[in-house]
Amino acid sequence: MLQASETLEVDKSDKTIQTDMSVFEQLESEVRSYCRSFPTIFTKAKGYKLWDTQGNEFIDFFAGAGALNYGHNDPHIKQKLLDYIADDGIVHSLDMATSAKERFLERFHEVILKPRGLDYKVMFPGPTGTNTVESALKLARKITGRETVISFTNAFHGMTLGSLSITGNSFKRHGAGVPLNHSVSMPFDNYFDDELDSVTLLERYLEDKGSGLDLPAAIILETVQGEGGINVARFEWLKRIEEVCRRFDILLIIDDVQVGCGRTGPFFSFEPAGIEPDIVCLSKSIGAYGLPLALTLIKPQYDKWAPGEHNGTFRGHNLAFIAATEALRYWETDEFAKETQRKGEKVHQFLKQLVEKYPQLRGEVRGRGLMQGLAVEVEGLADQICKAAFKRGLIMETSGPDSEVVKVMPPLIIDDEGLEKGLSILEKSIQEAIKNL
Amino acid sequence: MLQASETLEVDKSDKTIQTDMSVFEQLESEVRSYCRSFPTIFTKAKGYKLWDTQGNEFIDFFAGAGALNYGHNDPHIKQKLLDYIADDGIVHSLDMATSAKERFLERFHEVILKPRGLDYKVMFPGPTGTNTVESALKLARKITGRETVISFTNAFHGMTLGSLSITGNSFKRHGAGVPLNHSVSMPFDNYFDDELDSVTLLERYLEDKGSGLDLPAAIILETVQGEGGINVARFEWLKRIEEVCRRFDILLIIDDVQVGCGRTGPFFSFEPAGIEPDIVCLSKSIGAYGLPLALTLIKPQYDKWAPGEHNGTFRGHNLAFIAATEALRYWETDEFAKETQRKGEKVHQFLKQLVEKYPQLRGEVRGRGLMQGLAVEVEGLADQICKAAFKRGLIMETSGPDSEVVKVMPPLIIDDEGLEKGLSILEKSIQEAIKNL
Amino acid sequence: MLQASETLEVDKSDKTIQTDMSVFEQLESEVRSYCRSFPTIFTKAKGYKLWDTQGNEFIDFFAGAGALNYGHNDPHIKQKLLDYIADDGIVHSLDMATSAKERFLERFHEVILKPRGLDYKVMFPGPTGTNTVESALKLARKITGRETVISFTNAFHGMTLGSLSITGNSFKRHGAGVPLNHSVSMPFDNYFDDELDSVTLLERYLEDKGSGLDLPAAIILETVQGEGGINVARFEWLKRIEEVCRRFDILLIIDDVQVGCGRTGPFFSFEPAGIEPDIVCLSKSIGAYGLPLALTLIKPQYDKWAPGEHNGTFRGHNLAFIAATEALRYWETDEFAKETQRKGEKVHQFLKQLVEKYPQLRGEVRGRGLMQGLAVEVEGLADQICKAAFKRGLIMETSGPDSEVVKVMPPLIIDDEGLEKGLSILEKSIQEAIKNL
Amino acid sequence: MLQASETLEVDKSDKTIQTDMSVFEQLESEVRSYCRSFPTIFTKAKGYKLWDTQGNEFIDFFAGAGALNYGHNDPHIKQKLLDYIADDGIVHSLDMATSAKERFLERFHEVILKPRGLDYKVMFPGPTGTNTVESALKLARKITGRETVISFTNAFHGMTLGSLSITGNSFKRHGAGVPLNHSVSMPFDNYFDDELDSVTLLERYLEDKGSGLDLPAAIILETVQGEGGINVARFEWLKRIEEVCRRFDILLIIDDVQVGCGRTGPFFSFEPAGIEPDIVCLSKSIGAYGLPLALTLIKPQYDKWAPGEHNGTFRGHNLAFIAATEALRYWETDEFAKETQRKGEKVHQFLKQLVEKYPQLRGEVRGRGLMQGLAVEVEGLADQICKAAFKRGLIMETSGPDSEVVKVMPPLIIDDEGLEKGLSILEKSIQEAIKNL
């Protein structure tokens, strides 16, 4: 097994990237962000690699924030897309029936739902993560006739008003410009380490008629909080949350936008917990090729929508259906999930060694599958590490309320060579960053 | 000029379409809607035509609800997409800089903004109409420190919580499951025919410290309300609304999602009114090929976003940038706008003749450019007409609070032959529908 | 009949009142207001007169903002209070049954409700105007299961959060510190003079499924808006509002807190309009002697409260019951109402003459019964008039969104001599105030 | 010291009270509540005793829910009231200056604030508890520019919309008919017994930028929760809450409406904790004789009201000023506070003996000063005890989310004889109630 820094060659490159970004500075809004962390102009991409206009190569440990689980421009999907476009397959169809959509529905049922014993109706909201979350909230409120939704500390569910109201980050919340209501933020698993059992607290609130908590329509959660700092909920905790939902007749919504589609190994992140959410939100990698798509999965008994009660122009993005259908091949056997777990474990162990080797980091390793994080308690250090990594050709970002967690989130299809190369750059970047402490 | 029914051959086909829709019925959510109005499975499309799996051909008077102004699968755009994909151009990039995005920004500035003397920073929110509206609302509230937004009767701005709160339709609003607040719905132009001057009413509310209207952050409007029933605001009214905004220091947001990108002739629907909105929302046809994309245009002095204060995974949809850039070619001269106006006028006159010829319709013609509507006062009749049209191979939908308006909204690139053929089918469909009155 | 200024002697006094207000300045909050307009320390009062610590006498054209319709310290009520207290009658009893409350309920039924053919259950909320309004809103929302309440421009209903949300005044609204929601402010009668028929606008909003107006739980209004500037709704308008309520199954709430208890002549202000509100809010003069009391009258079919669903500590203020019961004597015949109307008409004519005589006022007379107002279009002039009046021994206040209306609102029991004396001072004050124009 | 049941004679009376309550049943709203628990008609009261129309005598262990700390109809206050009324002292004066108010302000400063080293400006909101709370919330939001207010589980702050939003009880909250927002309910002290340190949890939420808790304007609390079940906050907990407020620049509001004015011994309930709230809410016993009055005490630096920004008709209830001023005599020495503590301790010990003696109660004793509670874990038993007590001539009520706590809350002026008699009846009532278990 790979040992931190010992078996890897040092990447000496330390390229200085100096690109003319003036078009973006002059014409694009100040809201742009990632182009500030990765100040170059990308032009091509393949698998786990990207290239900029100056020919520099980058390893991708970011994977489009979870939208590129199958890597950039997967060759099989690519071919399907080229064929479909060349053949004038219908591209835009609102929510009309198309053969591309029919095929996707069939295959998704056959490859994903049926083998897992899951019975969900598939809804196509607008093709972004926040749209699926908004549709889930609306449905849960409609079904129960209640307004309140419980989310958790450090949750991230999206940037439109409904999703933002159940998102924890104060900077993002403040952007709403109106008070965010109809939601209650309860402590996520391990929020207090071992001091507080957050499910028991939640139960106490629900049992107590004087707690001030109005009976909620739904509880929504990410099994691993990505933006919130790679906080992993224990399976036992998830199970108990599900029991609370059943006991109090509350809908359970799992937001698998970032952590689904195999990011933690299994297709759905909640599978190993043995729970069955009432509604599941999918987006990001479901579009397979970086193409916008979102799904809301609904237990049949809760599919109480009136026709058109939620809609949107780009629900029927047929290129995404083509890509998504092809990507389902990865799920025909267990192989893909197992490989992800193997690689995830490799990263996890590597990060653990780094923590021991570099005590200056005051580090902690968190994660499940190929969603791993290195929490660094020194203020600003995580950003320094990512900055140093970029100069060495590695794309990584931070997460957590204080940007304190370095995220290791490569495309799942990355090979061991790529993984090791990336991890090696990570170690070099740490070495550089802690020099300045 | 085309006379209603006289110069056109009657389409006798009246195809009976019987398609097996069971996959959709079994696997897709009840929320699906257009596939109920157009119960067949589409598979190919080109220009203003679609074909289903049984080889039936349809004329498109719907244009993806305004997302296909350039028609289906425009050959030039298609070629650019094929080349880009074949060449492994980067597809997904969040909001990182890419050469495809750079080119789009430059061209959009050069072809659209500069010649019109407009100075806007370009923001890429999530790639749907509701996402650009949500971003506009957030920004307006941030800049002004106020919460209230004024929208208008029969406005439609989207289905996520912020956009829904400024949408008029009660069925859609009810879907929210929570009260919709921070918004005030004022009467749109001509809401009362000539009885009420709605700008004067608005001014009275704003002047009167006791009116109960809190000073708003913004006024948002569509210059032609599509979903609301093809309600056309007069240029003079728009000009006066802009004056009210200036006088009371309120931001003016134009939602050009459906009616922009040339639908009424000029690129922006507000150009002939001589107004300069502070924020403009674009989506639908900006992606050119039916590809999800949205833009929020912001006057530089209001581009007060902090980096990342609004974000989303699919902001950087490079295929859409490629398509959008290529589509800008249509705007290098005035020709396209003029043609749209000519064809729009042709439709308008045709519809007027229909209204005269078929008084049973109790009809009224509304519209601007190629966004034309035939309001039919007989309950349920508009739906009957569209149903009959579909059987004859014409795709049309209704709008308005009671689905009382038949929308004529073909791709802008439709030729006269297609237009006439479609209008002829429309007349036949009317004849059939009124038979049952 | 009294002619403005001609038959009245001029009050030459122009006392200079200089009182040591330091205790209030040092110990009381900056929120105090009337003590700034009337900067002296009052100590005794009787009928329509007050005296300060320096022995100055004042005529009261303010009547405790409508709380002293029966004047200060009515001798019959006084005696009843003295007897009750001396006899150790129970004073505080929450909502327990007491003989004082029993007697009040019986007499209120007998003297007020029964002869008017009204059938209301009596609820005692907390003893202030805003508490009765809050209870009415809660009940209307409970009964209908809807949230929205329609109020009108320039309405004033109270200062707690629910009442404030249906109040028009922006200064007062702003004080809430949170956005005020679940309410829509429609134009009051004559808001646009004759240009806009506000009932028709309201109906249009309610009929139109796309208007953006959610079906309301209730419409709440004052038949004459006191704080809003003595705006008088026509009986025909009230009748039509009632019809709208019936047609759309909306509850009609009349806030008679200021304008009830005979202020306009009849006990309830809405009697001459021939309407029957579903809920009526009473406070101010119902306590008769300036004692805190409030009533919420509820049609029996809407009395759907669960026991204790709304409560409060001072619901059972027995001194107020004693006073209120005694005051009902005024209502045993029609005499009191007629006298009020006669005096009201006298004031009205006098004000009209003033308007003609002093065109510099750019004045308009508004009012019904003994709630009369002189709207003065010159900025700040109304305040100047009241200030000058105070120096001459007359207590009057302004109302309206810009404090532009001088209110003439004496105790109903004022005699002609007092009335004439007060009006004469008013004219002198006007003469003084317009000198400085 | 008194031993449970041993030294007390048994009251054998067990009167059967059968009163004609038909007037209330026919004419008063269903919302009435206490008259159902105590189904008789009261007519006189003195000290700690009440009498009904049939001459039955009752001992008062309820004290007007805390409004009668000085007992019913205190003879000294009574004389002052009789003199003032007889002398035609001004009764109603809105917020004008009066000599009665001046005297109260001076004496309150002299007797209460100054000796305690407290520096507060006095505001007079509407004369009920909920009005003072609403004014406190408004002010805190105005000063900080923030919306959120933190309250605690099982808090009770009032029944108008603002106060209700920070009240825990779900039955009462539900009555609002609209979602209650801008508030967060955190766990009160000992909410989890020793498992959860609620201040640490609160701090974690405030420190964590991702917690989903928006920085609040204020924290509001009762030091002993009356309606919530006699939950006593430890002084140490209160001290830490104050520290959290200081650290995060949050205003601390103490709602001393029920528990102030000596109920726990000292005038303010928070004195022994050594904290200095920024705003204090007072009502109930401040009016001394059961007369409606409320005060909002504000640190001078936070007295940022504009004149009239909060108002109300009955702010200047001069009878209440007369009564309140006279009652301040009780506070000229320490005697009153000490006596209350002595009697409170007596009750506390007695209740503890009851708990031991009657294990069937599964009882727990809670309380501070003369606010004592016997929590009874057997469902419905607390109500049975109070019912039995009433039949024996003792007025007591329950509190807590499940009405599980028997409250012992006599007037503070009760003598030992009355206290012992009441406690003896309580024991008898327990004996009767548990017979049926």
UniProtKB/TrEMBL annotation, chains A, B, C, D:
GO terms for molecular function: diaminobutyrate-2-oxoglutarate transaminase activity; diaminobutyrate-pyruvate transaminase activity; pyridoxal phosphate binding. CDD domains: OAT_like. It is an enzyme of class 2 (transferase). Pathway: Amine and polyamine biosynthesis; ectoine biosynthesis; L-ectoine from L-aspartate 4-semialdehyde: step 1/3. Pfam families: Aminotran_3 (PF00202). One of its GO terms (biological process) is ectoine biosynthetic process. Catalyzes reversively the conversion of L-aspartate beta-semialdehyde (ASA) to L-2,4-diaminobutyrate (DABA) by transamination with L-glutamate. This is Diaminobutyrate--2-oxoglutarate transaminase. It comes from Marinithermofilum abyssi. The lineage of its organism: Bacteria, Bacillati, Bacillota, Bacilli, Bacillales.
